[in-house]
Specification:
The protein has one helix and eight strands; from the N terminus they run ββββαββββ. It has a five-stranded mixed beta barrel with strand order 1-3-4-7-5.
Length: about 140
């Protein structure tokens, strides 16, 4: 059996890197995806889905170094489910409504935001670490 999820979105905050007890790096960030459509009355509707992404190893260091809030990325990986429910992790917001977190363990992270002088992309040696730079979306 195999599971693979591909998500394209923008970072909702700067990535945070920490280290596991064995010393391996892990970087986490939130990723927002949007779906826009017109309802039956012609009104534009927008739905945002949030993912919590975790990147491990050398790829975690690269993601932490080059990603920042607002950057667009493509993430390929697998979903981590809540062991209690088998679905997304649910929580109660401050206003009392229920929310859900979809957790994604990244195998690949591709940088989709264009490079500029102030924000150079990763060096070529980092591309094989699982985090890949991309000038154009291949689809």
């Amino acid at each position: 059996m195999y599971q693979s999820v591909t998500v394209v979105g923008r970072l909702g905050r700067d990535p945070e890197m920490r280290y596991m007890p064995n010393g391996d790096p892990v970087t986490s960030f939130s990723l927002a995806t949007d779906r826009v459509w017109n309802d039956k009355n012609g009104q534009r509707q927008k739905e945002t889905t949030w993912f919590r992404v975790s990147v491990f190893g050398k790829a975690a260091e690269t993601a932490n170094q080059y990603l920042s809030k607002g950057k667009m990325v493509l993430v390929e990986g697998r979903l981590r489910v809540d062991p209690k429910t088998g679905g997304p992790v649910t929580y109660t917001r401050q206003d009392g409504t229920v929310g859900a977190n979809f957790e994604l363990i990244a195998n690949t992270v591709r940088f989709l935001s264009p490079r500029d002088e102030a924000d150079a992309g990763p060096p070529e040696g980092e591309v094989d670490s699982g985090v890949q730079a991309s000038e154009d979306i291949p689809f």
